[in-house]
Amino acid sequence: MTLHRRTLLGSTAALLAAPAYAPALAQTGPIKIGVMAPLTGVLAAGGREMVDGVTMFVEQAGKKMAGRDVELVVEDDGSNPDTSLQKARRLVEQAKVDFMMGNLLANTGLAVAGYVRGTGTPYFIPIIAADELTQRGRIPNVVRVAGYSASQMAHPLGDWAWKKGYKKIATIGQDYTFGHEQCAGFARVFSNAGGQVVRQFWHPLNTSDFSPYLGQLASLGVDAIFAMETGADATRFIQQYASFGLKQRIPLLGAMNATDQSVIRTLGAECEGIVSSAHFAEGSDVPATKAFVEEHVKRFNRIPSLYGFAMYSCTMWVAKALEKIGGRAEDRAALLAAVRETELDNSPLGRPVKLDEFGNPVYDVYIRQTVKRADGKYWNVPLETYPRVSQFWRYSPEEYMRQSPYSRENQYIRQG
Amino acid sequence: MNRGVMWLLALLAAAVMPLVLSSYHVDLATRILIFAVLAMSIDVLAGFVGRTSLCHGAIFGVATYVVIWAMAKAGLPAAPAFLSGVLAATLVAALFGLLAVRTSGVYFLLLTVALGMVVWGICLRWTGVTGGENGLRGQDMRPGFLLARENFYWLVLAVAALTAWAMQRFVNSPFGLSLRGIRDSESRMRALGYNVPLHLFVGFAVSGFFAGVAGALYAFFNEYVSPSSVAMGQSVAGLLMAIVGGIGTLFGSFIGAAAIILLENTVSWYTDRWQAVLGLVFILTMIFAPEGILGTVRRLAAPKGRAR
C-alpha cells in the first residue's frame, strides 16, 4: 500500500505511455482504492479519522486484500460538493481506481454519486446518510456498505421514548436535510405510538448561541427533548443545555451524531446521561467491539468515533467481498454483487450484518447512554437493543417509498 | 494585428488539445474555459468600470441552478433550458445592477457581497425547489452529440471564444469607452452629460449575462449544483482568476483560470496543505506581479517609455 501520490503519478504515466500493456498491468498490479474525506476545513478532524479507519484495517490485513497488494489513493474533498466531484473525476479517470469510498457531508456524497452513475464505478458510502441514496433515488453502483440512512437510527429512539413513558417531546435540529430526516424519523414513530410532538425548532448550521431556543424549550413543559446536532453545534448545544440548568430538569435525547466520540471527547460532565441510538456503541462489552476500541486507542490514542468505525468496517466488508471473487477488483459487476451478498460477521459490532435489497445495512440498533469511564472520559454504553432495524423501520418498503421523503415540511407527525 | 495572430494560434492550440490529452485533462480544460468566461465577466466590471464585484459567483450559480432545475424538474430540452438559465442570470444581474450602481469602491464590494449572500441563502433554504444543502442533480443533460467529452469541450471552446470576442468588442466600443471614462472620473463623465447610472446598469447587466453563459455551461459540465456553487467562494475564485491573469486585460482570465485550476489540481496531488500553497502563490503574485500574469508580460514586452 502506498499512501503517497507520487508513486501513483509514475504508475499512471506508465499506463498512459503503454496502453497496450494496460490490461495486463491492471490484473497483476495492486488493487487501487480511492478514498475521499474532508482533510481541510472545519470537518478535517472527522476526515482524518475516516482515513485512519481505512489505514488501520489495511495495515492489520498486511496491506493485502485477497492476496493482492492494496494501494490507497487518498483525496481531500474539501467538504465541498464541487471539489468532491472534481476529485472523484480524477480518481476514476486519472488514477484509475477500482472503486471509491468515503466522503462525509451528504452533499459531497450526492455529488459523487451523481457522477459515478455515469461511469459505473463502485462507490461505497459508510458515512453519507442521505436517505434517498438507498431509497427512492438509489443508484446500482452506490452501496451504503457499513453505513446507515439518516432516519434509520432515529426511528427506534422514537419508539423507546414512548415506551419509556415520555408523553410530550420537543425536537431541535440543524436546518438541513440530514437534520430534517433524523427529526422526522424520531417524530414520526413517537407521535404514531401516541406521543405528542409539541414543537420543532430548526436552527442554522453553526449556531453559536442557543439561548433563544433553550429559553423556549424550557417553557414548553415537555417530558424530554430530542436534539439532532452534529460537530461543533452538538458541542455547543450540550454545553449550553447544561449551563442553562436544563440538564437537571428535562432529559435530553440525542441523534447518534450528537454524542459521537468526535463530540463528547472534548466534553465533561455536561454530556453525561444523554440517551441516543446507534448501531455502534464504543462502550459496549461485546468482545469484538472491545478489541477494536483497544486497538484504536493504542494506534491513535483516542477512542474511535463513528467515522473511524464506519470506514474501518466498510474496508473490511469490501475486503471480504474481494476474497469471494478472487480479488478481481476490476470486475465491477462481480465486486458489486459480492459486496451486496456479503454478510459481515467479524466486524467490530460482533454481530453479523448484511444489506437489505436496496443496499443499506440492517442493524441491531442500540439505545445507548453516555457514561463516565474510570479514566474520566465519556463514552456510549448500550442500554437496550432493537434487533434487525432496517432503514424502513417497521413500515413496508414499497409503501414507505411511495410516500414523499422526509423534509422540513414532511415530518409525518400525527396530531392528537 | 500581431496580437490577433497570437490569439488565433492560441485558439488553434486549444482546439487540438483533446486529440492529445487524456479524458481527465479534457475535463480539466473544459472547466478552465468555463471559469475563464466567469473571470472575464468579472474583469469587464473590475478592469473597465472600476467596480470589483463579489456576486458574480452567485449570478453564475443562478444560471446553473435554473438550467438543472429546468431540465430535471420541469423537463425542458437542453437548448431552452440553457437559454432560460442565461436569461435568469441576466435578470438577477439587472436587479442587482439597479441596487449596486449607486455605489462605488468598497461600498460596491460590500453591497455585492450582501446580494450574493441573499442568493446563497435562498438556494440553501428554499428546499422544495433548490434541494437545499443537498442540491440538485441533473441526469443525462447533454444532448447526444455532446456526450463525448471532446465534443463538449469544443462547444465550450467555441462559446468561450465567442464570448471573449464579444466582451472585447463590448469594452472597446464607444459604450465601453464611456464605462472607462466613468472608471477614471465619474464626476467628469456626469459633467459631460453622460447618464452615469444608466451606463453602469447596462455594464452590470451585460457582465451578468456573460457570467450566466458560463454558469449555464457549467450546469451541463457538472450536472450537479448545490449552494456552494453560489457561495461567496465561487465569486472569490472568479475574481482571483481575473486578478492572477491580469485585471483589465480580459484575455488574461484564460491564463488566470488555467493557472489556478491547474495549481489546485496538481498541488493537492502532492500535499494536503495545498490551500496554503495556493495562498502563497496569490501573495507572491500580488507582490511581484500586481498587474497579473498577462499584464506583466505585456509590460515587459512593451517598448520602453511607452505606456500600455
CATH hierarchy: architecture of the largest domain in chain A: 3-Layer(aba) Sandwich
Tell me the quaternary state.
heterodimer
Relative strand content of chain B: under 5%
CATH class designation of the largest domain in chain A = Alpha Beta
Question: Overall 3D geometry of chain B?
Answer: globular
Q: Rounded to an integer, what's the Rg of chain A over CA atoms?
A: 21 Å
Mean pLDDT of chain A: 89
Q: What's the overall geometry of chain A?
A: globular
Walkthrough of the structure:
The complex is a heterodimer of chains A (416) and B (308). Chain A has 416 residues and is α/β, with parallel strands linked by helices. Chain A has 2 domains: 5-150 and 287-350, Response regulator (Rossmann fold, 3-Layer(aba) Sandwich), CATH 3.40.50; 154-284 and 364-402, Response regulator (Rossmann fold), CATH 3.40.50.2300. Chain A has 15 helices and 14 strands. Chain A has helices spanning 5-17, 22-28, 44-60, 81-94, 106-119, 154-163, 177-193, 211-218, 231-243, 246-249, 261-264, 287-300, 306-324, 332-341, 397-402; strands at 31-37, 64-65, 68-76, 99-102, 123-124, 142-143, 168-174, 196-203, 224-228, 252-254, 275-278, 354-355, 361-372, 378-389. In chain A, α6 runs parallel beside α7. Chain A starts with a helix and ends in a 14-residue tail after the last helix. The model of chain A is unreliable at 1-26 (pLDDT under 50). With 308 residues, chain B is mainly α. Chain B has one domain: ABC transporter involved in vitamin B12 uptake, BtuC (Orthogonal Bundle), CATH 1.10.3470. Chain B is built from 14 helices and 2 strands, in the order ααααααβααααβαααα. Chain B has a two-stranded antiparallel ribbon with strand order 1-2. In chain B, α2 runs parallel beside α7 (149-172) and α8 (174-184) packs across α10 (196-222). The longest helix of chain B is centred in the last third of the chain and has 27 residues, at 196-222. The radius of gyration of chain B is 19 Å and the shape is globular. The relative contact order of chain B is 0.18. The mean pLDDT of chain B is 89. The chains are: A alpha/beta (416), B mainly alpha (308). At the A-B interface, α1, α4, α5 and α7 of A face α2 and α12 of B.
